[in-house]
Amino acid sequence: MKSLIDIPEKMKALVLHDVAKLTLDEVDVPKLEPGTVLVKIKACGICSSDIPRIFVNGTYHFPTIPGHEFSGQIVAVGDEVDEALLGRKTCVFPLLPCRKCKACELEEYAQCSSYSYFGSRCDGGFAEYLVVPVWNLVPFDDSISYTAAALCEPAAVSLHAVDLAAIKEGQKVAVVGTGTIGFLIAAFARDKKADVVVCARSENKVAYAGQLGFQTLNTSSKTLTDDMKELIGQDGFDVVIEAVGSNASIETSISLAGALGTVLLVGNPTDDLVLPKNVYWSILRKQITVKGSWNSSYNSRVNDWAKAMEILKNSDFDFGRFVTHKFPMEEHEKAFAVLKDRNEFTLKVMFVQDEAQE
After folding, report:
1. Which of 161, 231, 251, 254 sits in a 20 to 30 Å window from 142, CA-based?
2. How far apart, in whole angstroms, are the C-alpha atoms of residue 64 and residue 126?
3. How much is the average pLDDT of 306-331?
4. Is cis: bond before 139, omega within 30 of 0?
5. How far apart are CA 308 and CA 115, in angstroms?
6. Bridge partners of residue 307, in order along the sequence
7. What is the mean pLDDT of the chain?
8. DSSP 14-83
9. What CA–CA distance (Å, rounded) separates 351 from 189?
């Protein structure tokens, strides 16, 4: 083992002891094993899935340290690990595959039938340190800040969705949903030279999309179909990407799709979904292709994480502006209160540590 620091025995971490029982505790620093590194976490985003995970459904066991959208610095390496990794900035692919199932044999790790996952099935990034296998590391350039790099997980998910949608130059593309992933999808779709329209019910999100240079469509309008036709000059979109996961947003997405169009579902639902008969008929009559997108690709053929990092490094667009709030872990109650406040404009809320060293 080699280390840049004197590794402490204890660290601070946000520990979920039961549903809605999240406390800042002092816990043991995890131990290095061969083939792993110790990451000092600098920034960790709060995913929308963390809200029901912490306050409604719980994790797979208690206690658990949540958090799967994180970046940090490699401060120690275990045996059998290249010492050149010491000091590198990195984010982390959070899925730990079984490597035995059919999906793993195909390197389609997001479809692994028996995986573990940082922040839900095992301890994650709401902590000062985390031990990570070398295989999961996504090192990044020093020019990228830790907070921007912590967007790599939602960015990889968004890139995966845009690639599955097979968007072509000049196509009319609607993005339904204005969370972090929705806006990232819109940004990446625009890179494909598509005509992108951001669709939302929230006036402040519609206004924000306009500030980012996107055309917008308010889906709460009673004249939505007419508004759409006036905006894009045709009866429906070529591609609609749904990034909410609710009945209303899925119905809206299908209604916005034109004949022979594609609807790509990305949003993760929290409740059962019901598809009205007329909406289903719309799929049949317009011969709409409905596809699903899950997580991201991370294998020897396609690595959405590496692609996302290259975009974060080289793009003229300031992805850091999607991080609207930053809090130390000590202010976790305030961070979650902000997220739950419907009157507060939020995109990505993050826990940050040693931010001055970015």
Report:
1. 161
2. 10
3. 93
4. no
5. 23
6. none
7. 95
8. EEEEETTEEEEEEEEPPPP-TTEEEEEEEEEE--TTHHHIIIII--SSSSB----EEEEEEEEE-TTS-G
9. 28
E strand spans, the chain? 2-3, 10-18, 21-28, 36-45, 69-77, 89-92, 95-96, 116-117, 129-133, 137-140, 172-176, 195-200, 215-218, 237-242, 257-265, 289-292, 323-327, 348-352
d(CA 135, CA 258): 42
pLDDT band for position 282 (cuts 50, 70, 90): very high
Give me 344's structure tokens: 């507060």
Say how far apart CA 38 and CA 85 lie, in whole Å: 11
Residue type, 179: G
Q: How confident is the model at residue 272 (pLDDT cuts 50, 70, 90)?
A: very high
- Distance in angstroms (rounded) separating the CA atoms of residues 190 and 183: 11
Mapped onto helix, strand or coil, the DSSP state of residue 312 is helix
Dihedrals phi, psi of 219, to nearest 5 degrees:
-75, -5
Phi/psi at 263 (5° precision): -115, 120
Please report, to the nearest 10 degrees, the dihedral formed by the alpha carbons of residues 236, 237, 242, 243 taken in order: -130
Q: Whole-model pTM?
A: 0.95
SS3 292: strand
The answer to whether 156 touches 296, Cβ cutoff 8 Å, is yes
How far does Cα 4 stand from its chain's mean position? Answer: 30
pLDDT grade, residue 356 (50/70/90)?
very low
